[in-house]
Amino acid sequence: MAITINSTRENDTDQTVFFSIDYDGTKKWHGDIPKDADPQTHLEANEDRLKTQILRKQYPEADVPQLEDKTPLESFEAWIANGCKNAEITKTTVTPAQPAVDAVMGERQKTVESSEEVTTTEIVEQDGKMVQKSVTKTVVTNTPETKEVPLFDEAGEEVGTTTVPVMESFEVSPAVEAVEETSETVITRPETVVEKVAWKDTAE
Are residues 23 and 87 in the same domain? Predict the structure, then answer.
């Protein structure tokens, strides 16, 4: 028989069973089961699960894919038979394509930059005395530009002139060139071989 009960211990709400299981050599282990369960029957009914847990303890870093139409134990055993290899994991980042965008143009009134010398009177401390002195600064201003144009009446007769703003076009946002979709794949985990950890028997 693959599972042999060595001893049991009664607990408040369950029972701890110490047993030996013949799986890749005899292993001594233990587990908690329902208080009213028959140890032999319970463990034998869960034999595949116990073997899977044993493999998980021996290969704690294993990344085992669940195979179609296979049990977890069969999938784990197939993973071991194939060399105990965790498969390579990659990550692909996709940058979507972007269409070309035309420049957005706007219109605004032109300005004329001008400068003038402005003299002001300031009181400053100089050699321990308060001195009133003239200070000349260059002040730059931007004045909206206008122009005179003929003015007509309703009959189309010129009756004089009027002043209108001089307008100019300007770029609100620049044109953007089209960008093709790109993708980049990087390896986040290379294929690795998982080392088997030695089994440690449970002491009763």
Answer: yes
pTM of the model: 0.60
Residue 120 shares a structural domain with residue 66:
no
Query: Where is the domain boundary, 46, 63, 91?
Result: 91
| Segments of the chain assigned E as strands | 3-10, 14-22, 26-34, 85-86, 89-95, 104-109, 111-126, 129-144, 146-152, 158-165, 167-173, 182-189, 192-193
Q: Region 109-124: what's the mean pLDDT?
A: 88
Residues 87 and 118 in one domain: no
pLDDT tens digits for range 4-29: 999 999 999 999 999 999 999 999 99
As given in the structure block, the two tokens for residue 18 are 């110490």
Q: How far apart are CA 79 and CA 85, in angstroms?
A: 7
Please tell me the distance from the alpha carbon of residue 92 to that of residue 103, in angstroms, as a whole number: 33
**If you search the block for the tokens 């002491």, which residue do you land on?**
203
The token duo for 196 is 């088997």
* Domain membership flag for residue 97: no
- Closest alpha carbon to 204 in 30, 50, 51: 30
Domain count, the chain: 2
